[in-house]
Design a protein that fits this description.
The structure holds two protein chains of two kinds.
Chain A lengths: L1 H10 L6 E4 L3 H26 L3 E3 L11 E9 L5 E7 L2 E4 L5 E3 L6 E3 L13 H29 L1 H6 L3 H5 L1 H9 L11 H24 L2 H6 L1 H6 L3 H28 L2 H9 L2 E4 L8
Chain B lengths: L1 H22 L15 H7 L1 H13 L28 H8 L6 E6 L5 E4 H6 L3 E8 L5 E10 H8 L7 E10 L6 E8 H4 L5 E6 L2 E2 L9 E3 L12 E7 L25
Parallel strand pairs in B: 1-10
Antiparallel strand pairs in B: 1-2, 3-4, 4-7, 5-6, 5-10, 7-8, 7-9
Classes of the chains: A alpha+beta, B alpha+beta.
């Protein structure tokens, strides 16, 4: 605080905001390609899931034995109307109107995820797969570009892999976030590093590999895949869980962007330019 | 105090924006460009060619799909698609326990011929316990017994320009009154694969009607819809442009990818 005050006296002006070049073209480009990919992958994935809305553990789906961990279904209620139901580990919840049975008044349909959450809106497994695999390829290609660029330009080492100092500052950073106090510094804080690291280095590879495990062709090419994930149906379940985690990340990510100053953060992801606090050291 | 109020307002704004973002996902605005025949959809469908090329490069011609232990057969094979063909021809054959059944193999071959079930059963057989992966997402493990398609191809001797095996079937998906005849096709790499068999037995019994009696094909490195049931004729062709709607299979004609290794 002292240094800031001194400078104000010297210049007689407000501390000038410092704008730095924060995001490289590779970071920005891959970020927005991923936004598009994940949007279509999510909504076509839900379309594909609707073709058989149950998840199992192991190699096969239990039709004559029980290994289901999650399912969405529709059943008649005692009064003769249809209800939507979601079952998680044997616990069933009524979810009429959203999961299992949904649609505009008078035009309700038996479908796991509602029409507004799937691409296409109507039930069409073939089209869901066409779009899903197109963006699956694009996602993987973008991952390779990002990894290569981030390895070469130092983004990976500097901004993603947390350092020892980062880990030591974790409690302080958590406390700052809990009080919704955001420091605009040159580099990512440890929670940013950890969350981006988990998404980019763990969840992305995991969702691609579990997706490939559902491919009968890839199971022949890379048999270790199906062993790694404990069977095709377990892989399908993990694929679904990782999807839920990515949706969770997305929601927190958007909230953080808005809380940390949407103009500044959006500008950094579009033009790369980011305004940092004048004296980041002063806060420490 | 004012700082806390401001943050709470910011937080509520952020939450509302997040919810609005989710609601925007309503996706019927993409329906039009994704209908079969639209250039946008056709462009995206090219990803299937990429998958085919990549898997063919990774797999090797002979690489086998995993085979399982007897103990993994924990349930009956789930029937799917047509389960009870109703065409008069099929009903006649089924009534007589398929005694009059003949598999016709023709097209681009040197010696077209017909096989009775007894002849097929007398050829060297292969038995395999494999996982059937349905395009819908479910899987089921069963034991299949049949004659390798390669053995049949060796006897009829395909011409060098024969690129695909087309399986013509007895069933009309949706019933013979309103449905369309089921058919499928695979390339010569899959046709000659050791695990590609014309199955007449399942789980140590005669192949049931619900699962494709008297004869179905197993193509273990692809999804279930490639594995045509109720096969009446195998035609070797250079292209399937002239067959039905020209996409190489009943489901392919209805928008599904021809290569079903994923």
């Amino acid at each position: 605080m002292e240094r800031v005050a001194t400078r104000d006296v010297d210049t007689g002006a407000e501390p000038r905001p410092i704008v730095i070049k924060r995001q490289s073209i590779w970071t920005r480009l891959t970020h927005w390609v991923w936004v598009i990919c994940l949007f279509f992958l999510l909504l076509t994935g839900l379309q594909i899931f609707n073709a058989h809305p149950s998840l199992y553990i192991g190699q096969q789906s239990g039709f004559e034995f029980s290994n289901s961990v999650f399912s969405i279904s529709a059943q008649y209620k005692p009064d003769g109307s249809i209800g939507g139901y979601t079952t998680i580990f044997g616990n069933t919840f009524e979810t009429t109107g959203v999961f299992g049975y949904s649609g505009p008044e008078g035009q309700e349909r038996v479908r796991a995820f509602p029409a507004w959450l799937t691409i296409p809106s109507y039930q069409d497994l073939a089209t869901g797969r066409v779009v899903h695999f197109f963006f699956g390829w694009l996602l993987v290609a973008t991952m390779f570009v990002w990894f290569l660029a981030s390895f070469i330009n130092g983004h990976l080492r500097r901004d993603i892999i947390p350092s020892g100092a980062d880990i030591r500052s974790l409690p302080r950073d958590v406390a700052a976030h809990a009080r919704l106090r955001f420091h605009h510094t040159r580099h990512y804080n440890v929670l940013q590093k950890l969350s981006y690291g988990i998404v980019l280095l763990i969840l992305f590879p995991l969702i691609v590999l579990t997706g490939l495990t559902m491919s009968p062709g890839m199971d022949v090419a890379w048999p270790w895949l199906v062993d790694l994930f404990g069977g095709r149906q377990t892989a399908r379940t993990i694929h679904f869980i990782v999807m839920v985690l990515l949706v969770g990340f997305f929601i927190i990510h958007i909230v953080m962007v808005l809380l940390a100053g949407p103009i500044n953060t959006m500008r950094s992801m579009i033009t790369g330019r980011y305004r940092i606090d004048p004296e980041p050291e002063a806060e420490q | 105090m004012s700082r806390i109020v401001l943050n709470r307002r910011k937080f509520l704004t952020a939450s509302a924006a997040g919810v609005a973002g989710l609601a925007l996902a309503g996706c019927d605005q993409f329906d039009a460009v994704l209908r079969p025949g639209h250039p946008v959809r056709d462009t995206m469908a090219a990803a299937n060619e990429l998958t085919y090329t990549a898997q063919r490069a990774l797999l090797g011609r002979e690489a086998l799909a995993r085979e399982f232990a007897e103990s993994e057969i924990r349930q009956g094979m789930r029937p799917n698609g047509s389960v009870d063909p109703d065409s008069p021809e099929y009903l006649f054959l089924a009534r007589n326990n398929f005694f009059h059944y003949r598999l016709r193999v023709d097209g681009l071959v040197e010696t077209p011929r017909e096989y009775s079930l007894a002849e097929l059963r007398n050829m060297p057989a292969r038995t395999q316990i494999t996982r059937h992966d349905c395009v819908e997402g479910w899987s089921c493990i069963a034991k299949w017994t049949g004659v390798p398609l390669a053995s049949v191809l060796d006897e009829v001797r395909p011409h060098s320009n024969a690129r695909y095996c087309v399986f013509h079937c007895f069933d009309y998906y949706g019933g013979s009154a309103t449905g369309a005849p089921y058919y499928e096709s695979i390339d010569m790499i899959d046709a000659r694969h050791p695990q590609t068999i014309l199955a007449y037995g399942m789980n140590d019994a005669t192949l049931p009607i619900a699962n494709g009696a008297p004869l179905r094909v197993r193509v273990e490195r692809q999804l279930g819809y490639k594995m045509a049931k109720y096969i009446r004729r195998i035609e070797l062709v250079e292209s399937f442009a002239q067959i039905h709607r020209g996409k190489g299979g009943y489901w392919e004609d209805r928008g599904y990818d021809w290569y079903a290794g994923i």
